[in-house]
């Protein structure tokens, strides 16, 4: 006898297997790329790994000049991004940014920001992808970024006896 709990668990397992099969058969990165290291137990990724994941993400999501075909369920929509078809979204995104990341930086403690230059050469302004320290929860941020911010070292605070001095 199959109970409601068993049925729900079976459906979840089937959906999970189907999503893995779709990613593995497509030959492309998933919409939220992950590494083997962060799939089981969250492990902090390096700057280069954050850049690699972000570059895979923007290519898969159709922001670069590389042509892609996606379904609506494969696309991660930005706030205020609307279209009746994936083709419409991909047409708007196509060749918006360069494929190679401009730079990366940790912020807000352990989150990664990876920036990309616009294709039409707007000086020091671009788009950026964020993710957590393990390379999960990756998304394109809806706002522009000043790209030189990515090259600066995070602010450290050095405490002295009675005051805090910025370094």
Question: How many H/I helical runs?
Answer: 4
Order of helices and strands: HHHHEEEEEEE
Structural class: alpha+beta
Give the termini distance in whole angstroms.
66 Å
Radius of gyration: 19 Å
Helical amount = 25-40%
The backbone outline, from C-alpha atoms, is: globular
DSSP E strands, number: 7
> Uncertain regions: pLDDT < 50 for 5+ in a row?
1-32, 34-38
Largest sheet data: 5 strands, antiparallel
> Which strand-content bin applies to the residues?
15-25%
Mean of residue pLDDT values: 80
Describe this structure in words.
By secondary structure, the protein is α+β, with helices and mostly antiparallel strands. The protein has helices spanning 4-26, 36-40, 47-60, 86-93; strands spanning 103-107, 111-117, 125-131, 139-140, 145-146, 157-159, 164-166. The relative contact order is 0.14.
Note the main attributes of this structure.
167 residues; alpha+beta; five-stranded antiparallel beta sheet; 7 strands; 17% strand; globular; disordered N terminus
């Amino acid at each position: 006898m199959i109970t409601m709990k068993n049925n729900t668990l079976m459906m979840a397992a089937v959906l999970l297997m189907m999503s893995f099969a779709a990613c593995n058969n497509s030959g492309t990165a998933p919409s939220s790329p992950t590494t083997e290291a962060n799939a089981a137990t969250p492990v902090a990724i390096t700057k280069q790994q954050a850049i690699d994941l972000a570059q895979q993400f923007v290519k898969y999501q159709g922001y670069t000049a590389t042509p892609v075909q996606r379904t609506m369920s494969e696309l991660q929509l930005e706030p205020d991004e609307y279209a009746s078809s994936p083709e419409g979204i991909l047409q708007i995104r196509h060749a918006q940014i360069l494929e190679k990341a401009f730079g990366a930086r940790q912020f807000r403690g352990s989150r990664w920001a990876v920036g990309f230059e616009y294709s039409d050469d707007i000086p020091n302004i671009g788009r950026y992808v964020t993710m957590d320290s393990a390379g999960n929860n990756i998304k394109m941020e809806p706002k522009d970024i000043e790209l030189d911010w990515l090259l600066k070292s995070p602010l450290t605070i050095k405490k002295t006896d009675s005051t805090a001095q910025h370094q």
